[in-house]
Structure formats: structure tokens, C-alpha cells
Amino acid sequence: MTDLFSPITMGALSLPNRIAMAPMTRNRSPGGVPTALNAEYYAQRASAGLLIAEGTVPDPSGYGYMDIPGLHDARTQEGWRGVARAVKARGGHIFVQLMHMGRISHPDFLGGAQPVAPSALQAPGQVWTHAGQKDHGTPRALAAEEVAPLAATYGRAAALAVEAGLDGVEIHGANGYLISQFLASNTNRRTDEWGGSLEKRARFLLAATDAAIAAIGGGRVGVRLSPGSTFNDIHDEDPEATHAFAIAELAKRPIAYLHILDSRPGWDVAAQARRLFGGTLMLNGGFDRARADAAIASGAAEMVSFGTPFIANPDLPARLRADAPLAPADTATFYRGGAEGYTDYPPLAA
Ligand SMILES: Cc1cc2nc3c(=O)[nH]c(=O)nc-3n(C[C@H](O)[C@H](O)[C@H](O)COP(=O)(O)O)c2cc1C
Q: By alpha-carbon position, which residue is closest to atom 22 of ligand 1?
């Protein structure tokens, strides 16, 4: 029987199990450059079938949280080279998630410049900056001629990733960041070829995905979506139709996997994705071993990603396999700190 521990061929990779580590921002890469501590953290978790490293900015205009990594120049690439080397030394596989934050930013992260977004609509709420909590900045709408070059930065970052020794990239189309701001009708009020109909709202997602495919091949490109999520003030007029279109378009492309964050009560997001997407489907959101095995055995998904369980359980696959209890994570150190709450969670005693 196929379960979480069955090997799988996913795109260009052969993975030893179907457990992925979901991308998680940990705010420990000052200046956008991954460090030796980040390399140690990912290497500790290399027994995952696939590590998906945290949201990483493909262009300097995409920063918006403190000390998150980038991948857009020689310095940031060098940091990722160290991460790739450490993970490979443990026999692991690692993608990096490409995240441009769009309007969920603040001029403090952008040298005083305004954040960019599909439309000039400020997000409610606040963001942590080095000078404390501040309201999200009011973005400026991208000019029509700026949009395609911004999508192309996902291709450039993908090329830098593979050159640095990473296995591929995940396009972050979830959770209300730039791509999801283009997808949703409340954040995309454009009337040019990048907004309006759902086909036009999906264009940026597809352009970014196609840029990455052209750069490194579809077998090294995954895409993440969060259908129906309202995180970061996303309120699409018809999220089911928007995502049905986006998923059907992605299904025409030779991508390595589609990663669905299923957080929407009352609409079977996972079943919609399964119906429309015949490739490797990865599900995420509150899974434990029993639910994950059931999803794989039933064919609802080929892979399952785990987020928070990986924070405090670096050897999560071994613990799941042994049905060992999971250590609880300390939420106070999710988004700050050095080694504490990061690389100091021990594996199970041998
Ligand atoms: C500390 C933390 C940081 C996160 N950062 C990201 C991120 O950078 N990109 C992303 O797509 N999701 C991010 N997420 C969401 C997780 O990838 C995942 O979807 C969520 O934790 C639900 O999965 P779980 O129930 O297995 O934890 C983050 C979650 C946590 C707890």
C-alpha cells in the first residue's frame, strides 16, 4: 500500500518519502542573506522527502518582513549555496519558495520607496518593522510595462537557485502576497491586460510560473495556492472560479507539483484540486500521520506537507514512522531569535 513512506518521482526528483516541510518564514537572514545557522536548520530537517525553504524575495521590491531572505544577486545566492551544500551533505532535497510581498510591505523595507501592487489599495493591519509595528504602506499600482519584467524576476531567481545547488523553486501564489493580490478581485482593480476578468487576474501567476519553467524546466518548479483563504485581506468575489481557472491552467504545464493550503471550511478545496490537476498534488494544513496516510492511500494527494510540526521536530519523518509523540513548538520564537527555538530542538534520542 502506498503511504507517507513510499518513495516518489516528482518532476525531476526522486524522493525517498512523501513528507514535505512546508515553507515557513523564520526571520533569521539579516540583510536578505541566508547564514550558516539557516544552513544548519535546514540540514537538521533533511530527512523530509522535500524541504521547501521559506518565502524568499526574487526582487528587492518584494521585501516586507524583517530579516527574510532574498535570491536576486550574488550575495543572496552565495547564502543559498551554503544552505544547499549543507542539505546535500545530508542527502536531502530542497526547493526555495519565491515570495514577493507586494502591498504587505512597508517603505522601511524598501529604502523609503512605496510598496508595489496590482492596485493602489492599502492592506488593513500592521507589519513588524525594525522600528516597531507600523501600518502597511499604501502601495502604488504597477505600471503596465512594469508587470512582465516583475514576473520575469521569478525566472531569474529560479536560475540563481539551481546554479546555487538548490533543487528547484516553489512559486508562492498563496496567502495574500503579490501573486495572490493579482488573483483576487478585491486587490486587483486593474483594467489592463493584468486585471478585470479572472483570466486576466491569473496572468501574473502564470507568467511567473512560465518564467521559472523556461529558466530551469518544469520538473523543478512547484506552485502554491491557498484557495479561499482570506489571509492578508484577500476577498475574491468568486474564489472557487478563480482557482478552478488557475489550477486548470497550471495542469497544462509540466510542473513538478501543485501545493494546496487547505484552510477553507465549507468548500472541498482539495477535491477541486484533485479533479482539475492530474500531476503530483501536495496537500497542507493541520495534517497528522493518520490523515496524511489516508489522503495518500485514497489518491486524494501524492504528497503531504507539514509546517509547525517540523519546527520542534527536526526528525519528523522518523517520529511519524515510530508513532512517537511530537514535541510542541514555542510560538514566541517563530519569527525572531537566533539558535533558540530554531536549531536547538533535539531529535529523538537514539
Ligand atoms: C512560522 C510560520 C511561518 C510561515 N511562513 C510561510 C511562508 O513563508 N510561506 C508560506 O507559503 N506559508 C508559510 N506558513 C504557512 C505554512 O507553510 C503552513 O501552510 C501552515 O503552518 C499550516 O500547516 P501546518 O498545519 O502543518 O502547520 C508559515 C507558517 C508558520 C507557522
A: 285
The 10 Å Cβ neighbour count of residue 214 is 14
Nearest residue by C-alpha to atom 29 in ligand 1: 24
Checking phi first, is residue 4 left (phi over 0); if not, alpha (psi -120 to 50) or beta? alpha
The pLDDT value recorded for residue 264 is 78
Measured distance CA(52)–CA(234) in Å, rounded: 24
Instruction: Give yes or no for residue 23 CB within 6 A of ligand 1.
Output: yes
Fold of 8-333: TIM Barrel (3.20.20)
State which H helix or E strand residue 304 sits in. Answer: strand 303-306
Distance 247 CA to ligand 1 centre (A): 21
Boundaries of every domain in the chain: 8-333
What's the chain's Rg over C-alpha atoms? 19
CA nearest to 227, candidates 201, 255, 246? 246
In this model, does residue 331 exceed pLDDT 90? yes
Give pLDDT tens digits for 92-134.
999 999 999 999 999 999 999 999 999 999 999 999 999 999 9
| pTM above threshold 0.90 | yes
The C-alpha angle with vertex 309 and arms to 304 and 313, in degrees rounded to 5, equals 120
First to last CA, the chain: 28
Phi, psi angle pair for 230, to nearest 5°: -105, 10
Greatest Cα pair distance, the chain, in angstroms, is 60
Q: Render pLDDT for 174-183 as a digit per residue (tens, 0 to 9).
A: 999 999 999 9
Pairing of strands 140-141, 168-172: unpaired
Q: How far apart are CA 118 and CA 44, in angstroms?
A: 38
Tell me the best of 4, 19, 25, 342 to mutate to test the pocket of ligand 1, counting ligand atoms within 8 Å of each CB and taking the most.
25
pLDDT > 70 fraction of the chain, expressed in percent and rounded = 100
For the Cβ of 329 lying below 6 angstroms from any atom of ligand 1, the answer is no
